[in-house]
Write a structure and sequence with these properties.
The complex is a heterodimer of chains A (283) and B (292). With 283 residues, chain A is an alpha/beta fold. Chain A has helices at residues 44-51, 93-102, 114-122, 138-151, 168-185, 219-222, 225-232, 264-267, and strands at 6-15, 18-28, 33-37, 59-64, 76-79, 156-160, 188-192, 205-210, 213-217, 237-241, 244-248, 280-281. Helix content of chain B is 80%, strand content 0%. Chain B has helices spanning 3-7, 10-35, 39-60, 63-81, 85-109, 114-122, 130-159, 161-166, 171-193, 199-202, 204-209, 216-239, 246-279. The chains are: A alpha/beta (283), B mainly alpha (292). At the A-B interface, helix 2, helix 4 and helix 5 of A face helix 7, helix 8, helix 12 and helix 13 of B.
């Protein structure tokens, strides 16, 4: 129990009667890299908000390094989804990274830290750090985002679909960057993602949330038709093409984004999951 | 009348100081207004400062206090009614239209000088009294203090609300704080250029500045300089043309700076990009894109 980077016990989140997920028990070891998968609206981002201390649990407990998460913690870095900035936004890549150091702090804004230069160099963004962010490619932006998150030297790095909308080459280079960093610094990574990236071996484990239920284990354990069918309560196929894992929903609905999310209220009960008893999951 | 004679007169000195004070506050907040996409909020707040000024004129013969009260009420209303930018804009539109109607009604009841009404709308810089100047100084100090303390989190929350929230920045409260600062600034500016022309000091300088640099601090500094040049330059120009209101010159200079920056901006940007490209030995990002 002790020494975990993140510990969730009986963690439940409800909005009114609507159960997002419940009775989530999960230990994340220091330096571990966890993917959070599931359909839209399954509460993946919500889980990150809990870890960021922005949202309290409805029931259960959560600790980071043995303590309750609190907002603005220096221990936690956050990489968001790539988004488009206006082309004439008067903010350079360097400013974005600077936010990661002192953007939350009050006081006169005349600082130039060596830390920023160092972390920009660490992600290989020196060449475009002085360009306006609105002119950068998605991959360049996300590198700077990672620099921003790492500038505070976090022990836990949270990502909310940081690879979404990047081309495959940029995805691979961003993953390689994250992987190298976390292996060197022993940083724990929790990353919401819509698919397991082809770069095999980046994620140690997967947390799959759907229809108010969840399953956790190694990618090979969780990403099977049997496990996901039980999770969704409907027939699911998991297809492996080369090193890609594709989840195909029932009723002819192909593609990960069109998976039947299910009626959370109806499927949220304890009785219908029926997983095999091994592994870390609800019965 | 020579310009030196005019400059020796207290009313002209008051006017120059008032214009500079207003320009500095406007120039300071203008970049954040532009980044947050709040031009319409400035317009709305200014129009409703008019309603407040009309009420102030009618009730206490004090348009400045009325304008201040009016714009603060509007700031709070905008903050409570508009959660998303789209919602905010439609809320401002709705409040603005109703508020202007009330303003016209109030002015209808006003029995004083007819010029008092035009002064609210188009500014009367030469009518700035000692006590009004004092109000402007106080507003200036307040805005400067807020910006000195909160500039960094404000910029963070404006550029990147999601990550700012994750880093513990109180994004919602800062947005209310900014609206209040905006209301104070707009009220001050309305004394000089009038409620209808506030945009020329609270938006145009930043719109011009961000064409010339991507460094937020440089943009803020340029925006302040542009605002001061437009405000005091316009005022000095009006000394030479007694029949034309200073507002006309102020808005014209402000717009001229904007046009010049729009022309110069792309040239500057191209040059910087070329310099960066030649510095780049090889693209660092997957080998595909350097700069779109």
């Amino acid at each position: 129990m002790t020494g975990n980077a993140v510990t969730l016990r009986g963690a439940t989140l409800r909005f009114g009667q609507h159960v997002i997920w419940e009775d989530l028990d999960l230990d994340i070891a220091p330096g571990e890299c966890l993917a959070v998968l599931g359909p839209n609206g399954a509460g993946k981002t919500t889980l990150l908000k809990v870890l960021l201390g922005l949202l309290p649990l409805s029931a259960g407990t959560v600790t980071i390094d043995g303590r309750a998460p609190h907002r603005g913690s220096a221990q936690t870095g956050y990489v968001p989804q790539q988004r488009d900035f206006d082309r004439d936004l008067p903010v350079r890549g360097r400013d974005l990274v600077q936010f990661g150091v002192d953007g939350h702090r009050r006081g006169l804004p005349f600082t130039r830290s060596r830390q920023v230069d160092a972390v920009i160099a660490a992600v290989g963004a020196q060449d475009y750090a002085d360009a306006p962010v609105g002119l950068l490619s998605g991959g360049q932006q996300q590198r700077l985002r990672i620099a921003q998150a790492l500038a505070g030297q976090p022990r836990l790095l949270l990502g909310d679909e940081p690879l979404l909308s990047l081309d495959p080459a940029s995805q691979e280079s961003v993953i390689a960057l994250l992987d190298a960093y976390r292996r060197e610094h022993g940083t724990t990574v929790v990353m919401v993602t819509h698919e397991i990236p082809p770069a095999a071996g980046f994620f140690d484990r997967v947390l799959y949330v759907a229809a108010g239920r969840w399953a956790a284990g190694t990618p090979d354990e969780v990403m099977t038709g049997q496990r996901l069918s039980a999770l969704y309560g409907t027939h699911i196929d998991v297809i492996r093409v080369h090193d890609r894992v594709i989840v195909v929903g029932g009723e002819g609905a192909a593609g990960h984004h069109h998976l039947p999310a299910g009626d959370h209220g109806r499927h949220a009960g304890h009785e219908s999951a029926g997983f095999p008893p091994d592994g870390q999951e609800r019965r | 009348m020579s310009i030196w004679f005019l400059l020796a007169q207290p009313f002209a000195q008051h006017a120059l100081v008032a214009a500079a004070l207003v320009a500095v506050t406007c120039g300071l907040i203008a970049p954040l207004v532009v980044i947050r996409g709040m031009s319409f909020a400035v317009h709305g707040t200014a129009e409703l400062a008019f309603t407040g000024a009309a009420a102030g004129l009618l009730i206490a013969n004090n348009p400045v206090a009325g304008a201040l009260a009016g714009s603060l009420v509007v700031a709070v209303l905008i903050a409570t009614l508009g959660a998303s930018p789209r919602e905010r804009d439609s809320a401002i539109g709705a409040i603005l239209a109703f508020g202007m109607g009330i303003g016209v009604l109030l002015l209808g009841f006003y029995q004083g000088f007819a010029t008092a009404a035009t002064n609210i709308l188009f500014g009367n810089i030469f009518g700035v009294s000692g006590s009004q100047l004092l109000i402007l100084v106080v507003i200036n100090l307040l805005v400067a203090a807020v910006m000195a303390t909160w500039y960094r989190p404000l910029l963070f929350a404006s550029v990147d609300p999601e990550v700012a929230e994750a880093r513990g920045v109180p994004v919602g409260r800062l947005s209310l704080l900014f609206l209040i600062v905006l209301a104070l600034t707009v009220t001050g500016a309305a004394q000089v250029v009038g409620t209808l022309l506030v945009l020329s000091l609270a938006i145009t300088p930043a719109a011009a500045a961000q064409r010339l640099s991507a460094n937020p601090l440089v943009v803020t500094a340029l925006s302040v300089v542009f605002a001061v040049v437009a405000a005091d330059g316009g005022l000095l120009a009006s000394f030479g043309a007694v029949n034309i209101k200073a507002s006309v010159f102020i808005t014209s200079i402000s717009f001229a700076i904007y046009l010049a920056a729009r022309l110069a901006g792309p040239l500057l940007r191209d040059r910087r990009q070329r310099r960066r490209r030649t510095r780049q030995v090889q693209p660092a990002d997957g080998g595909t894109k350097v700069l779109r």
